[in-house]
Structure formats: C-alpha cells, structure tokens
Amino acid sequence: MEITLTILLTAAIVSLFWWISNRSAKDKSASIAEDLSTMRQQLQKTWTEMEHHRDAVFDAMAEGVLLCDLSGKILFWNRACRRLFNLPENPLDGMTLLEALRLHEVLEVFERTLEKGRTMGVELKPRGGASLHLMLNAVVVDHSSGKPDSVLLIFHDLTQLRELENARRDFVANVSHELRTPLSMIKGFVETVMDHPEMDLETRVNFLGKVQKHSDRLSLLIEDLLTISKLESGQATVNLQDVHLRGEVARVLSDLERGAQAKQMRVNLDIANDIRVKVDVDLLDQIIINLVDNAIKYGRQGGRVEVKANRNGNDQVCIGIADDGPGIPPESLDRIFERFFRVDKARSRSQGGTGLGLSIVKHIAQALGGRVWVESELGHGTTFFFTLKRSDALSSQTELQLDKHLHAASSARE
C-alpha cells in the first residue's frame, strides 16, 4: 500500500513538473514569437524609412538618376529623371531601359558599362528634345557580396550651359562684326586721304565727315555695350526720384522733334498731368529715347506716333508707344529684345543704331521694377509697353523693399 502511494505521489510530482516545464516552454515560445514579430515590424518600418529617405535624397538632386538591374530592367528613377524624359511617377513592372527612354545611345552606354564597369562623360542630344543637351555617366554597383548587382546611370542637364555658350559665341561674333564695319570704313577713308595729299578741300571735308560719322557710330556702340554690361551685372546705379511723368516725357520728345519733322510725322502725347512715378530720370530717358526713336525710324512717312500712359490695378503705370508702321512678323516678336537681333537687317543698318537699344530697354525696365513687352500686327503698326512704379503708391517701407528688388532685378539676364 505504501509502495503504491509512493508511486502515485512520484507520478503526480513528475506530472506537475512536466506541466510547469511545458507551460514555461509555451510561454517562452509565445514570447519569442512576439519578439520576432516586433523585430520584423521594426525592420520593415526601418526599411520603409530608409527607402523614403533615399527617395527624398535622390529627388532633391538636380541630376537625373536611374537604377536598373543587370538585365536592363528599371528599378528606380528620381524626379529629375522623370522631368528630363517625361516619365510617370514609378516605372512599370519589368519595364526595360529602352522601353522607358527609347534611346539606343543610352542602351549602348549601359552595355558598355556592363563590360567595363564604368562609362563617363557621354554627351547626348535626344531626338525630339529640340534643345536638350545631356551628359551621361554610368557605373556598375556591386552587392555586399562583391558581385555586380545593378547599374546606376546619372544624367547631367547641360542645356542651360550650352545655351549660355551659344549666346556668348553669338555675342562675340556680333560685336566683332559691329566693331569691324565702322573701323574698316574709318581706315579706308583715312588711307585714301593720306594716299592723295593733293585731294581737293571739298572731297577731303566730305571724307572726314564720313570718318566722323563712323567714329560716332563706334562710340555709340561702345557706350551701349558698357550700359548693357552694367545693367546685366547689377553695377548700374539706380537713383529713384518722384517724377511727373508727362513733363519728363514731353522734355525727351522735344529732343526727338527734328527726326519726326524730317519724316513729316506727328508725335502725340496722351499722359495725365497728375501721374507721378518713382523712377531714375536718366534711365527713363533712355527707354523713351530708344522706343520713340525706333517708332519714328520704322514708322511710315507722314504717319504718327502715340505716347500714352494709364494707371493699372497693381500700383503701377503702364506706358505705351505706338506707331503705324509695317509691323513686326509674329515669328520675330519673341526675339525682338535679344541683343543685335534685327527684323530687317538691311533696313536697320541703313537707319543706324547698334542693335542693342531694345535689349537695353528690357534691362532698364527690369532694373526699375517693371517689365516690357510688344504687340504688333503686320500692316497695322507696333506698340511697345513698359511699366513703372507709381510714386503715390509707395510708403517709406515699400521704397526700402523696392531698392532691394531693383538690385536683384538689375542682374537678370536674357
């Protein structure tokens, strides 16, 4: 009996220990499973945050970034890349490099990179992108194991740089031409006078008059070049004054009266006496002289020029200078304010001028806190508009803000 009781008691104790051990093991297993689940969630959250951070960094880059696997299937592209090639937000599953960009040149760079590990400095000019210039660099990216894993392509947009280079080249060519022409004429007349000392006085005076004419043209060109250089570099001094617009414009028009009379043209002034503007008088004079002189030169014989001004709702005054000449072709309107651009080159040269007048007008208007534009219809004349700040709309605090704006605006480039 005692033996049986002992056996039963032992069995009970063993069962109790087994139950306790089993319960503890289950609790530990559940705890481990819970810990693993928490770790997975944390890892997933960390991975998501890393991807978000990576995307934010790449999207902040000015260069286009594209990542693809070794078979050419796209894994990722950034915002700049989407902008350059007009791509959707995310690549489609299985989309290849050629399907996305449709550029065999990029595919050739990709294949060359797979072979060599790196390709640098390849310039591209995609068809269909009229003025798009790109430089492509590509490199093979290795896995942590050291084996090749993907290919990274980086596109640098050189379009603005190329445009600036072209503008510089055109500017140098135009300046060289404009300088060479009067210099050649001056040299020719001087050499003629020196080679013929017996030349009669009337011919000599005539030749010297031509030398003076071309010297004046050369001097004017240099002066305009210096003016536009100062305006573009922000070095031009802007002295704002409270000015009665009508009186100032009338004073400038009186200086241009002889040219208008030579073509039997009428210059009408339609500006209210009470309009006041905050402006640099010398810069305003340059705008009026350039625009009215152009209107007289290219207006029709016996025609008229209208100079008007109106207040608008933006605390500004809009001035318009209209002629009834032949007008400007639509394809030339967007280029009319470019340096040395001429609608009719032969007529423009015969009329004189440097080809810089309208470009100077544009930069002066910006320096004064306004803007300039043109409207024209063939056979119905041309009107140039520009805006100025109204002086009666400016408080002392606004004037201080305007002075800061003028310094920034004067450095604006074409």
What is the overall pLDDT average? 80
Number of separate helices: 13
Amino- and carboxy-terminal Cα gap:
114 Å
CATH domain class of the largest domain: Alpha Beta
Q: How is the main sheet built?
A: 7 strands, mixed
Rg, Å, rounded = 38 Å
How many β strands by DSSP? 12
Briefly note the structural class of the backbone. alpha+beta
CATH superfamily of the largest domain: Histidine kinase-like ATPase, C-terminal domain
Number of domains: 3
State the assembly state of the protein chains. single chain
Percent range of helical residues: 40-55%
Strand content: 15-25%
CATH topology of the largest domain: Heat Shock Protein 90
Query: What is the CATH architecture assignment of the largest domain?
Result: 2-Layer Sandwich
Task: Catalogue the unreliable spans.
Answer: 393-414
Tell me the series of helices and strands, N- to C-terminal: HEEHHHEEEHHEHHEEHEEHHHEEH
What general form does the structure show?
A: elongated
Describe the structure.
The chain is an alpha+beta fold. It folds into three domains: 100 residues, Beta-Lactamase, CATH 3.30.450; 75 residues, Helix Hairpins, CATH 1.10.287; 173 residues, Histidine kinase-like ATPase, C-terminal domain (Heat Shock Protein 90, 2-Layer Sandwich), CATH 3.30.565. It is built from 13 helices and twelve strands. The strands form two sheets. Strands 6, 7, 8, 9, 10, 11 and 12 form a seven-stranded mixed β-sheet that branches. A five-stranded antiparallel β-sheet has the order 2-1-5-4-3. A hairpin with a 5-residue loop joins strand 4 and strand 5. It starts with a helix and ends in a 5-residue tail after the last helix.
